[in-house]
Backbone:
């Protein structure tokens, strides 16, 4: 593999990792703000509701995270276009 291709892939993976971390932080913040504001009420009166509390919160977080995925994909594609798609060719 060419050095240029290795460097291009490394930069792309680092950029996508950073964007995913930012998206996860924003999704966690959105989930917390929704719970604190009362926009989303997670019932926890019975034992079944308490048992499902963590999966429901996880689902809320995942839905918020998936809303940011198109932005991550778009930025990654624009970054790859900026570098040049030919730079990612291993041969």
Residues:
């Amino acid at each position: 593999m060419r050095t240029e291709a290795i460097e291009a892939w490394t930069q792309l993976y680092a950029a996508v990792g950073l964007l995913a971390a930012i998206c996860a932080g924003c999704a966690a913040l959105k989930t917390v703000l929704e719970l604190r504001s009362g926009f989303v009420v997670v019932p926890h009166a019975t034992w079944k509701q308490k048992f499902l509390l963590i999966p429901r919160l996880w689902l809320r977080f995942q839905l918020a995270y998936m809303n940011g995925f198109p932005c991550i994909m778009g930025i990654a594609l624009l970054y790859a276009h900026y570098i040049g798609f030919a730079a990612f060719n291993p041969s």
Q: What stands out?
A: The mean pLDDT is 88.
